[in-house]
Design goal:
Arc Repressor Mutant, subunit A, elongated, alpha+beta, transcription regulation, 2 domains, WH_DNA-bd_sf, Jelly Rolls, CRP/FNR family transcriptional regulator, anaerobic regulatory protein, 211 residues, 4-stranded antiparallel β-sheet, 8 helices, DNA binding, DNA-binding transcription factor activity
Length: 211
Amino acid sequence: MVPIFSTLTYDEMMEVAKITVPRSYKKGEMIYMAGDKGEKLFVIHKGQVKISRLSPAGKEQVIRILGPGEFMGELSLFVCKPQTDNAETLEDTSICVIDGEKLKGIMAKYPTIAFKVLEELSHRLDKAEKLIEYLGSHDVETRIVETLLELADDKGEVVLNMSKKDLASHMGMSQETLSRKLSYFQDMGWIKQIGHRRIIIVDEIGLRTLI
């Protein structure tokens, strides 16, 4: 289920397993923090992890949300520097921790692993560049509407996999701004909020007038 190892044979996977240590974390625990020593690759077996950074002023920016099969901490394998991100669990999570130095030896032996890692890093770089462009060219209401439409299922229901605080951070705005705009959308009859993580799109046409 881990894309970077999916092309390996059983015996090759067993080589990776020998340098892997399983760890479990409760919801809200930090797996690592900016400044921690790197040299490890973390692969998510079960659960969700939020990757974020703090600005000099202490404002959190959510970089991405990762789930089963995805990995983090990979930059420390290629650059000798401490971690630059924070990794926090959003729910009870199981992680496979792989020794970086030993993994680099296996990557030299099986280059397909290195190519898979580079492929994933290229996808992440592309997403980051698009996000930067998106935040600079779209106003707050447009960002919220397009995010809701993107996350909605066929019935127009949005079930958030993160808190509204984290969603707001990822969209480059404060939680207060997001809450105020969602309340306005609801007052206009465009959406209906149910609890903290469910949003029903009632009038898609009305929402799209803001784009």
